[in-house]
Specification:
This protein has three domains: about 140 residues, NadA-like (Rossmann fold, 3-Layer(aba) Sandwich); about 120 residues, Rossmann fold; about 80 residues, Rossmann fold (3-Layer(aba) Sandwich). The protein contains 18 helices and 14 strands. Helix 7 crosses helix 18. The strands form three sheets. Strands 2-1-3-4-14 form a five-stranded mixed beta sheet. A five-stranded parallel beta sheet has the order 6-5-7-9-8, with helices on both faces. It has a four-stranded parallel beta sheet with strand order 11-10-12-13, with helices on both faces. The protein is of the alpha/beta class. The structure holds 1,3-dihydroxyacetonephosphate and iron/sulfur cluster (SF4). 1,3-dihydroxyacetonephosphate binds next to helix 6.
Length: about 400
Amino acid sequence: MVIAESPKTPIIPITEIEQSAFCQTDDELQAKSLEEEFQAGVRWQKIPISYLKAKPEELDARIAEARARLTEQVVILGHHYQRNEIIRFADFRGDSFKLSQFAASQGKAESIIFCGVHFMAETAVILSQDHQRVILPNLTAGCSMADMAHIDDVLDCWDDLTDVLPNSTTVPITYMNSTAAIKALCGREGGIVCTSSNAAATFEWALGRGDKILFLPDQHLGRNTAVRFGIGLDEMIIWNPFKPLGGNSEEDIDRAKIVLWQGHCSVHTRFSVKQIEEARRQYPDVNVIVHPECYMEVVQAADANGSTETIIKTIEEAPSGTTWAVGTEISLVNRIAQENPDKKVFCLDSVVCPCSTMYRIHPAYLCWILDGLNEGVVVNEITVDDDTKRDAKVALDRMLQVV
Ligand code: 13P
Ligand code: SF4
Protein backbone atom coordinates (compact mmCIF):
# COMPACT_ATOMS: atom_id res chain seq x y z
CA MET A 1 0.00 0.00 0.00
CA VAL A 2 1.50 3.34 -1.04
CA ILE A 3 1.21 6.22 1.42
CA ALA A 4 0.05 9.34 -0.40
CA GLU A 5 2.49 12.20 0.08
CA SER A 6 1.53 15.85 0.00
CA PRO A 7 1.97 17.53 -3.42
CA LYS A 8 5.27 19.25 -4.18
CA THR A 9 5.36 22.86 -5.30
CA PRO A 10 5.39 23.01 -9.12
CA ILE A 11 8.50 24.64 -10.55
CA ILE A 12 8.65 26.07 -14.06
CA PRO A 13 12.24 25.74 -15.32
CA ILE A 14 13.95 29.08 -15.87
CA THR A 15 14.87 27.93 -19.40
CA GLU A 16 11.13 27.56 -20.17
CA ILE A 17 10.38 31.09 -18.94
CA GLU A 18 13.29 32.48 -20.93
CA GLN A 19 12.15 30.65 -24.06
CA SER A 20 8.75 32.37 -23.99
CA ALA A 21 10.41 35.78 -23.49
CA PHE A 22 12.81 35.05 -26.36
CA CYS A 23 9.98 33.94 -28.64
CA GLN A 24 8.32 37.31 -28.68
CA THR A 25 11.09 38.73 -30.79
CA ASP A 26 10.65 38.89 -34.56
CA ASP A 27 14.20 40.11 -34.98
CA GLU A 28 16.29 38.54 -37.74
CA LEU A 29 18.71 35.82 -36.73
CA GLN A 30 22.06 37.03 -37.96
CA ALA A 31 24.62 37.18 -35.13
CA LYS A 32 25.35 40.54 -33.52
CA SER A 33 28.08 41.23 -30.97
CA LEU A 34 27.45 39.33 -27.77
CA GLU A 35 27.03 42.64 -25.93
CA GLU A 36 24.08 43.54 -28.20
CA GLU A 37 22.60 40.05 -27.89
CA PHE A 38 22.72 40.22 -24.09
CA GLN A 39 19.74 42.55 -24.36
CA ALA A 40 17.49 39.60 -25.33
CA GLY A 41 16.88 38.90 -21.63
CA VAL A 42 18.24 35.36 -21.26
CA ARG A 43 21.09 34.19 -19.02
CA TRP A 44 24.54 34.11 -20.57
CA GLN A 45 27.79 32.89 -19.13
CA LYS A 46 30.27 35.66 -18.22
CA ILE A 47 33.07 36.06 -20.74
CA PRO A 48 36.11 38.38 -20.97
CA ILE A 49 35.17 41.85 -22.23
CA SER A 50 37.19 41.65 -25.48
CA TYR A 51 34.92 38.79 -26.66
CA LEU A 52 31.80 40.57 -25.50
CA LYS A 53 32.39 43.56 -27.74
CA ALA A 54 33.81 41.78 -30.80
CA LYS A 55 31.80 42.10 -34.03
CA PRO A 56 30.70 38.91 -35.81
CA GLU A 57 33.08 39.41 -38.78
CA GLU A 58 36.04 39.81 -36.44
CA LEU A 59 35.02 36.70 -34.47
CA ASP A 60 34.67 34.73 -37.67
CA ALA A 61 38.27 35.47 -38.69
CA ARG A 62 39.58 34.83 -35.16
CA ILE A 63 37.78 31.47 -34.90
CA ALA A 64 39.13 30.35 -38.29
CA GLU A 65 42.67 31.25 -37.27
CA ALA A 66 42.46 29.69 -33.78
CA ARG A 67 40.83 26.53 -35.12
CA ALA A 68 43.49 26.06 -37.83
CA ARG A 69 46.27 26.15 -35.20
CA LEU A 70 44.67 23.29 -33.25
CA THR A 71 44.50 20.83 -36.19
CA GLU A 72 43.52 17.27 -35.16
CA GLN A 73 43.76 17.89 -31.41
CA VAL A 74 40.24 19.24 -31.59
CA VAL A 75 36.99 18.12 -33.16
CA ILE A 76 33.99 20.45 -33.31
CA LEU A 77 30.53 18.85 -33.28
CA GLY A 78 27.50 20.98 -34.22
CA HIS A 79 23.84 20.16 -33.70
CA HIS A 80 21.57 21.14 -36.59
CA TYR A 81 19.92 23.88 -34.47
CA GLN A 82 23.16 25.84 -34.15
CA ARG A 83 23.42 29.21 -35.85
CA ASN A 84 25.09 29.39 -39.26
CA GLU A 85 27.98 31.36 -37.71
CA ILE A 86 28.76 28.25 -35.61
CA ILE A 87 27.74 25.43 -37.92
CA ARG A 88 30.22 26.57 -40.57
CA PHE A 89 33.03 25.58 -38.17
CA ALA A 90 31.58 22.17 -37.29
CA ASP A 91 33.70 19.21 -38.43
CA PHE A 92 30.57 17.07 -38.06
CA ARG A 93 26.96 18.12 -37.88
CA GLY A 94 24.03 15.92 -37.01
CA ASP A 95 20.98 15.11 -34.94
CA SER A 96 21.42 13.86 -31.37
CA PHE A 97 21.87 10.27 -32.49
CA LYS A 98 24.45 10.96 -35.17
CA LEU A 99 26.39 13.29 -32.87
CA SER A 100 26.53 10.63 -30.16
CA GLN A 101 27.95 8.20 -32.75
CA PHE A 102 30.56 10.81 -33.74
CA ALA A 103 31.46 11.39 -30.10
CA ALA A 104 32.00 7.65 -29.67
CA SER A 105 34.24 7.41 -32.73
CA GLN A 106 36.54 10.46 -32.60
CA GLY A 107 39.27 8.83 -30.51
CA LYS A 108 42.08 10.95 -32.00
CA ALA A 109 40.95 14.34 -30.73
CA GLU A 110 42.02 15.44 -27.24
CA SER A 111 39.14 17.91 -27.05
CA ILE A 112 35.60 17.53 -28.34
CA ILE A 113 33.97 20.95 -28.54
CA PHE A 114 30.25 20.31 -28.45
CA CYS A 115 28.21 23.09 -30.04
CA GLY A 116 24.82 22.02 -28.80
CA VAL A 117 23.22 21.81 -25.36
CA HIS A 118 24.27 20.42 -22.00
CA PHE A 119 22.66 16.94 -22.20
CA MET A 120 24.41 16.36 -25.55
CA ALA A 121 27.81 17.30 -24.11
CA GLU A 122 27.21 15.02 -21.11
CA THR A 123 26.40 12.17 -23.48
CA ALA A 124 29.62 12.83 -25.36
CA VAL A 125 31.55 12.61 -22.06
CA ILE A 126 29.98 9.20 -21.40
CA LEU A 127 30.63 7.84 -24.89
CA SER A 128 34.08 9.29 -25.54
CA GLN A 129 37.34 7.81 -24.32
CA ASP A 130 39.08 8.51 -21.00
CA HIS A 131 41.88 10.58 -22.54
CA GLN A 132 39.36 12.97 -24.15
CA ARG A 133 37.66 16.02 -22.72
CA VAL A 134 34.34 17.51 -23.78
CA ILE A 135 33.76 21.26 -23.77
CA LEU A 136 30.44 23.08 -23.95
CA PRO A 137 31.22 26.64 -25.13
CA ASN A 138 28.52 28.28 -22.98
CA LEU A 139 27.56 26.54 -19.74
CA THR A 140 24.08 28.10 -19.70
CA ALA A 141 23.14 26.23 -22.89
CA GLY A 142 20.68 23.81 -21.28
CA CYS A 143 17.36 22.44 -22.52
CA SER A 144 14.00 23.40 -21.04
CA MET A 145 12.65 19.89 -21.61
CA ALA A 146 15.58 18.23 -19.82
CA ASP A 147 15.06 20.72 -17.00
CA MET A 148 11.51 19.35 -16.52
CA ALA A 149 12.79 16.04 -15.13
CA HIS A 150 14.84 16.19 -11.93
CA ILE A 151 16.50 12.98 -10.86
CA ASP A 152 14.98 13.15 -7.35
CA ASP A 153 11.46 13.34 -8.80
CA VAL A 154 12.24 10.54 -11.25
CA LEU A 155 13.56 8.35 -8.41
CA ASP A 156 10.35 9.06 -6.44
CA CYS A 157 8.30 8.06 -9.48
CA TRP A 158 10.33 4.87 -9.92
CA ASP A 159 9.82 3.94 -6.24
CA ASP A 160 6.07 4.59 -6.51
CA LEU A 161 5.77 2.45 -9.65
CA THR A 162 7.69 -0.40 -8.03
CA ASP A 163 5.47 -0.20 -4.91
CA VAL A 164 2.20 -0.08 -6.84
CA LEU A 165 3.23 -2.76 -9.35
CA PRO A 166 5.13 -5.43 -7.41
CA ASN A 167 4.35 -8.09 -10.02
CA SER A 168 5.00 -6.31 -13.27
CA THR A 169 8.11 -5.19 -15.12
CA THR A 170 8.30 -1.56 -16.13
CA VAL A 171 11.05 -0.69 -18.60
CA PRO A 172 12.29 2.92 -18.37
CA ILE A 173 13.12 4.69 -21.64
CA THR A 174 14.63 8.11 -21.45
CA TYR A 175 14.84 10.46 -24.38
CA MET A 176 18.38 11.68 -24.98
CA ASN A 177 17.15 15.10 -23.78
CA SER A 178 17.65 14.27 -20.10
CA THR A 179 20.40 14.40 -17.49
CA ALA A 180 23.13 11.76 -17.19
CA ALA A 181 21.63 10.79 -13.81
CA ILE A 182 18.35 9.78 -15.50
CA LYS A 183 20.22 7.84 -18.18
CA ALA A 184 22.08 6.08 -15.35
CA LEU A 185 18.78 5.10 -13.70
CA CYS A 186 17.69 3.58 -17.02
CA GLY A 187 20.98 1.67 -17.24
CA ARG A 188 20.55 0.25 -13.72
CA GLU A 189 16.89 -0.64 -14.11
CA GLY A 190 16.98 -2.54 -17.41
CA GLY A 191 16.12 0.49 -19.54
CA ILE A 192 17.45 2.30 -22.56
CA VAL A 193 18.04 5.75 -24.06
CA CYS A 194 16.32 6.83 -27.28
CA THR A 195 16.49 9.75 -29.67
CA SER A 196 13.81 10.97 -32.04
CA SER A 197 15.40 8.88 -34.81
CA ASN A 198 15.18 5.54 -33.00
CA ALA A 199 12.29 5.88 -30.52
CA ALA A 200 10.25 3.19 -32.31
CA ALA A 201 13.12 0.68 -32.23
CA THR A 202 13.62 1.26 -28.50
CA PHE A 203 9.86 0.83 -27.87
CA GLU A 204 9.99 -2.50 -29.66
CA TRP A 205 13.01 -3.47 -27.56
CA ALA A 206 11.27 -2.45 -24.33
CA LEU A 207 7.91 -4.05 -25.16
CA GLY A 208 9.73 -7.34 -25.65
CA ARG A 209 11.15 -7.09 -22.12
CA GLY A 210 8.39 -5.79 -19.90
CA ASP A 211 4.68 -5.11 -19.41
CA LYS A 212 4.93 -1.35 -19.18
CA ILE A 213 7.10 1.55 -20.29
CA LEU A 214 7.98 4.63 -18.28
CA PHE A 215 8.87 7.25 -20.92
CA LEU A 216 10.91 10.31 -19.85
CA PRO A 217 10.83 13.28 -20.16
CA ASP A 218 8.94 14.19 -23.39
CA GLN A 219 5.30 13.15 -23.21
CA HIS A 220 4.79 14.04 -26.89
CA LEU A 221 7.56 11.87 -28.34
CA GLY A 222 6.38 9.08 -26.01
CA ARG A 223 2.74 9.40 -27.08
CA ASN A 224 3.58 9.80 -30.78
CA THR A 225 5.69 6.65 -30.64
CA ALA A 226 3.18 4.60 -28.62
CA VAL A 227 0.34 5.28 -31.08
CA ARG A 228 2.54 3.87 -33.86
CA PHE A 229 2.38 0.57 -31.93
CA GLY A 230 -1.43 0.69 -31.80
CA ILE A 231 -1.42 1.57 -28.10
CA GLY A 232 -4.58 3.53 -27.29
CA LEU A 233 -4.68 6.85 -25.46
CA ASP A 234 -6.70 5.10 -22.75
CA GLU A 235 -3.66 2.90 -22.09
CA MET A 236 -1.40 5.91 -21.38
CA ILE A 237 -1.21 8.04 -18.26
CA ILE A 238 0.67 11.25 -17.55
CA TRP A 239 3.00 11.42 -14.57
CA ASN A 240 2.92 14.87 -13.00
CA PRO A 241 5.96 14.96 -10.69
CA PHE A 242 4.34 17.57 -8.45
CA LYS A 243 1.37 15.39 -7.46
CA PRO A 244 1.24 12.24 -5.29
CA LEU A 245 1.46 9.17 -7.55
CA GLY A 246 1.92 11.55 -10.44
CA GLY A 247 -1.76 12.56 -10.17
CA ASN A 248 -3.00 8.99 -10.78
CA SER A 249 -4.82 6.36 -8.76
CA GLU A 250 -3.26 2.95 -8.15
CA GLU A 251 -5.88 1.46 -10.51
CA ASP A 252 -4.91 3.94 -13.28
CA ILE A 253 -1.26 2.94 -12.90
CA ASP A 254 -2.11 -0.74 -12.89
CA ARG A 255 -4.18 -0.40 -16.09
CA ALA A 256 -1.68 1.75 -17.99
CA LYS A 257 0.73 0.36 -20.55
CA ILE A 258 2.67 3.60 -20.95
CA VAL A 259 3.50 6.12 -18.24
CA LEU A 260 4.41 9.44 -19.86
CA TRP A 261 6.45 11.95 -17.87
CA GLN A 262 4.87 15.40 -17.96
CA GLY A 263 7.57 17.18 -19.96
CA HIS A 264 7.59 18.99 -23.29
CA CYS A 265 9.72 21.10 -25.61
CA SER A 266 8.92 24.81 -25.42
CA VAL A 267 9.88 25.26 -29.08
CA HIS A 268 7.96 22.36 -30.65
CA THR A 269 4.75 22.87 -28.68
CA ARG A 270 4.37 26.19 -30.50
CA PHE A 271 3.29 24.36 -33.66
CA SER A 272 -0.45 23.84 -34.14
CA VAL A 273 -2.95 22.15 -36.44
CA LYS A 274 -4.24 25.62 -37.30
CA GLN A 275 -0.84 26.54 -38.75
CA ILE A 276 -0.90 23.38 -40.85
CA GLU A 277 -4.40 24.21 -42.13
CA GLU A 278 -3.23 27.72 -42.99
CA ALA A 279 -0.20 26.38 -44.88
CA ARG A 280 -2.46 23.98 -46.84
CA ARG A 281 -4.88 26.81 -47.62
CA GLN A 282 -2.07 29.03 -48.95
CA TYR A 283 -0.20 26.27 -50.81
CA PRO A 284 -2.56 23.40 -51.73
CA ASP A 285 0.38 21.22 -52.83
CA VAL A 286 2.42 21.79 -49.66
CA ASN A 287 4.17 18.90 -47.86
CA VAL A 288 4.18 19.30 -44.09
CA ILE A 289 6.99 17.74 -42.06
CA VAL A 290 7.36 18.14 -38.29
CA HIS A 291 9.54 16.94 -35.43
CA PRO A 292 7.95 14.24 -33.21
CA GLU A 293 8.29 16.52 -30.15
CA CYS A 294 5.18 18.29 -31.52
CA TYR A 295 1.67 17.57 -30.17
CA MET A 296 0.14 14.30 -31.40
CA GLU A 297 -2.58 16.21 -33.30
CA VAL A 298 0.13 18.16 -35.16
CA VAL A 299 2.13 15.04 -36.00
CA GLN A 300 -1.04 13.36 -37.27
CA ALA A 301 -2.06 16.36 -39.38
CA ALA A 302 1.42 16.50 -40.98
CA ASP A 303 2.49 14.39 -43.98
CA ALA A 304 5.67 13.19 -42.31
CA ASN A 305 7.62 13.49 -39.09
CA GLY A 306 11.14 12.68 -37.97
CA SER A 307 14.37 13.79 -36.32
CA THR A 308 16.25 16.84 -37.56
CA GLU A 309 18.42 14.59 -39.74
CA THR A 310 15.31 12.95 -41.25
CA ILE A 311 13.73 16.34 -41.96
CA ILE A 312 16.88 17.51 -43.76
CA LYS A 313 17.21 14.30 -45.81
CA THR A 314 13.52 14.14 -46.75
CA ILE A 315 13.56 17.66 -48.16
CA GLU A 316 16.96 17.22 -49.83
CA GLU A 317 15.72 14.10 -51.62
CA ALA A 318 12.37 15.59 -52.66
CA PRO A 319 11.78 16.58 -56.29
CA SER A 320 12.72 20.08 -57.41
CA GLY A 321 9.86 22.58 -57.29
CA THR A 322 8.12 21.02 -54.26
CA THR A 323 6.89 23.10 -51.32
CA TRP A 324 7.67 22.27 -47.67
CA ALA A 325 6.23 23.65 -44.44
CA VAL A 326 8.47 22.59 -41.57
CA GLY A 327 7.66 22.31 -37.88
CA THR A 328 11.01 22.58 -36.17
CA GLU A 329 13.54 25.13 -34.92
CA ILE A 330 13.95 28.19 -37.14
CA SER A 331 17.77 28.23 -37.56
CA LEU A 332 17.51 24.77 -39.12
CA VAL A 333 14.48 25.65 -41.27
CA ASN A 334 16.32 28.70 -42.64
CA ARG A 335 19.39 26.61 -43.42
CA ILE A 336 17.32 23.97 -45.25
CA ALA A 337 15.73 26.77 -47.28
CA GLN A 338 19.18 28.19 -48.18
CA GLU A 339 20.57 24.76 -49.10
CA ASN A 340 17.55 23.84 -51.27
CA PRO A 341 17.04 26.88 -53.51
CA ASP A 342 15.09 24.71 -56.00
CA LYS A 343 12.30 24.18 -53.41
CA LYS A 344 10.08 26.44 -51.37
CA VAL A 345 10.81 25.78 -47.68
CA PHE A 346 9.27 27.76 -44.81
CA CYS A 347 8.56 27.45 -41.11
CA LEU A 348 5.01 26.60 -40.00
CA ASP A 349 5.27 29.26 -37.31
CA SER A 350 5.58 32.73 -38.78
CA VAL A 351 7.11 34.22 -35.60
CA VAL A 352 10.88 33.81 -35.62
CA CYS A 353 11.64 31.64 -32.62
CA PRO A 354 15.00 29.93 -32.23
CA CYS A 355 15.65 27.48 -29.41
CA SER A 356 16.89 30.05 -26.89
CA THR A 357 19.36 27.64 -25.30
CA MET A 358 20.92 26.36 -28.56
CA TYR A 359 21.24 30.02 -29.52
CA ARG A 360 23.49 30.68 -26.53
CA ILE A 361 26.43 29.15 -28.37
CA HIS A 362 27.42 32.53 -29.74
CA PRO A 363 30.62 32.74 -31.88
CA ALA A 364 32.25 34.75 -29.06
CA TYR A 365 32.12 31.64 -26.85
CA LEU A 366 33.57 29.37 -29.50
CA CYS A 367 36.39 31.86 -30.07
CA TRP A 368 37.06 32.06 -26.30
CA ILE A 369 37.26 28.25 -26.01
CA LEU A 370 39.61 27.89 -29.02
CA ASP A 371 41.89 30.73 -27.88
CA GLY A 372 42.05 29.08 -24.45
CA LEU A 373 43.05 25.71 -25.92
CA ASN A 374 45.77 27.39 -27.99
CA GLU A 375 47.15 28.83 -24.75
CA GLY A 376 46.82 25.51 -22.90
CA VAL A 377 43.81 26.69 -20.87
CA VAL A 378 40.65 24.57 -20.73
CA VAL A 379 37.39 26.39 -20.04
CA ASN A 380 33.93 24.84 -19.64
CA GLU A 381 34.89 21.18 -19.48
CA ILE A 382 31.83 19.00 -18.81
CA THR A 383 32.31 16.14 -16.37
CA VAL A 384 30.18 13.21 -15.19
CA ASP A 385 31.04 11.21 -12.06
CA ASP A 386 32.30 7.64 -12.57
CA ASP A 387 29.26 5.77 -11.19
CA THR A 388 26.80 7.81 -13.25
CA LYS A 389 29.00 7.41 -16.30
CA ARG A 390 29.18 3.63 -15.93
CA ASP A 391 25.40 3.17 -15.52
CA ALA A 392 24.41 5.73 -18.16
CA LYS A 393 26.79 4.07 -20.63
CA VAL A 394 24.88 0.80 -20.22
CA ALA A 395 21.66 2.52 -21.39
CA LEU A 396 23.45 4.41 -24.19
CA ASP A 397 25.25 1.30 -25.45
CA ARG A 398 21.91 -0.50 -25.59
CA MET A 399 20.59 2.35 -27.72
CA LEU A 400 23.58 2.19 -30.08
CA GLN A 401 23.14 -1.58 -30.44
CA VAL A 402 19.36 -1.56 -30.93
CA VAL A 403 19.54 0.58 -34.03
P1 13P B 1 17.17 15.58 -32.92
O1 13P B 1 17.73 14.34 -32.29
O2 13P B 1 16.07 15.30 -33.87
O3 13P B 1 18.26 16.39 -33.51
O4 13P B 1 16.46 16.43 -31.79
C1 13P B 1 17.12 17.04 -30.74
C2 13P B 1 16.29 18.07 -30.13
O5 13P B 1 16.61 18.60 -29.09
C3 13P B 1 15.07 18.45 -30.81
O6 13P B 1 14.45 19.46 -30.11
FE1 SF4 C 1 15.45 21.26 -25.78
FE2 SF4 C 1 13.38 21.90 -27.34
FE3 SF4 C 1 15.70 23.24 -27.56
FE4 SF4 C 1 15.48 20.69 -28.39
S1 SF4 C 1 14.45 22.50 -29.23
S2 SF4 C 1 17.17 21.56 -27.18
S3 SF4 C 1 14.07 19.87 -26.82
S4 SF4 C 1 14.32 23.20 -25.77
